[in-house]
């Protein structure tokens, strides 16, 4: 599992957990 920090155009930010095999 790897955590990705995502910032949307609206300025909101949230963490997304994705599997390494998922592209």
Automatic annotation (TrEMBL):
The name this protein goes by in its record: Ubiquitin-like domain-containing protein
Species annotation: Citrus sinensis
Superkingdom, taxonomy of origin: Eukaryota
């Amino acid at each position: 599992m790897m955590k990705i920090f995502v910032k949307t155009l609206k300025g909101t930010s949230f963490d997304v957990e994705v599997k390494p095999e998922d592209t």
